[in-house]
Fold this sequence. Notes:
By secondary structure, the chain is α+β, with helices and mostly antiparallel strands.
Amino acid sequence: MKMVNSRGLLKIVLVAIVLVILTDSGSAAEKLASCCKKVTKEKITDPILGYLVQREPTPPCVKAVIFQTEKGLYCSYPFAPWVAEKIMAFEKEKRVKASLSTVSPSGMSLLSIITSTASPSSSAAHLSTSSLPFSSSTSKSAVGETISENME
Length: 152
């Protein structure tokens, strides 16, 4: 009976550790960017790695979109027309990368099915798309207080 209690206690401790790690973990942009005190309307040409929306800051911070690039963090004016376009393009690219990186549950890819089949016979063989293992994932990311990072 003592062993059952120690297993239960171990599970509770492990869950507590995981919760502490999850609440303490944040992206580099969240940790580095305390706040933006000034913004620029200049368009960013570097590839975007992530962004953070600073919605209702307390002074001296101002409303801003903080873009994370390889060169650093940029505080941008949130109502500049190019800002929304950059965010939408980033989110679209992130969705495309996410859908390309999903693995089918069976571990088989369309390429492996095609290359493993015997040479075609005189009658054309058709693969039904309903018989192929496909999976897709969709994630919604609201422009909010959290960072959105590019998936690799």
